[in-house]
Design goal:
This protein has four helices and six strands. By secondary structure, it is of the alpha+beta class. It has a single domain, classed as Histidine kinase-like ATPase, C-terminal domain (Heat Shock Protein 90, 2-Layer Sandwich), CATH 3.30.565.10. It has a six-stranded antiparallel beta sheet. Strand 5 and strand 6 (about 145-150) form a beta hairpin. Helix 2 (about 30-50) packs antiparallel against helix 3 (about 55-80) and helix 3 runs antiparallel to helix 4. The longest helix has 26 residues, at about 55-80. It is globular.
């Protein structure tokens, strides 16, 4: 989506870490506050693409995917004593569907699990599966990209 660099780089507020761009992919620091930035980026991008009808589902999906990525990245960077990050890409596909991609360098693939009734977590991928038309995970040399498609 054109002009993404101007829109995305204007999002951090009040001393937040800068957003780094690699082509159209946005790189955010692995912090809880970055999940909120990812949500704002996705809402802006789907609205800008003329798919505001997908904004609520897209916001929930990116929230779950980004939260998982932050948790896994922090777990890995604590072992490696480094600052981690995750990436976000929102694409409008040829059929006007929206694809949301969240990437990180954490080694494991996300897998849905059964959460007990009182568990605070463990339902994220079940929500992603329920709210998206397709979702999955693709491994690459530097980590993985978890994605969801909304039509």
């Amino acid at each position: 989506m054109s002009d993404r660099k101007d829109r995305a780089t204007s999002l951090p507020e009040g001393g937040a870490d800068p957003i780094h761009l690699d082509d159209d992919r946005v790189h955010l620091p692995a912090r809880d506050a970055s999940v909120s930035i990812a949500r704002r980026i996705v809402i802006r991008e789907v609205s800008w693409a003329g798919r505001a009808d997908l904004a609520d589902r897209a916001e929930l999906i990116v929230s779950e995917l980004a939260t998982n990525s932050v948790r896994e990245t922090l777990r890995e960077t604590r072992r490696a004593d480094e600052q981690g990050s995750f990436s976000l890409l929102v694409r409008l596909l040829a059929d006007k569907a929206v694809r949301i991609e969240v990437g990180d360098r954490a080694p494991g693939e996300p897998t849905p699990r059964e959460a007990a009734a009182l568990d605070e977590g463990g339902r994220g991928l079940l929500l992603v599966a329920a709210m998206s038309d397709e979702y999955g995970c693709a491994r690459h040399e530097g980590g993985k990209i978890t994605w969801a498609v909304l039509r």
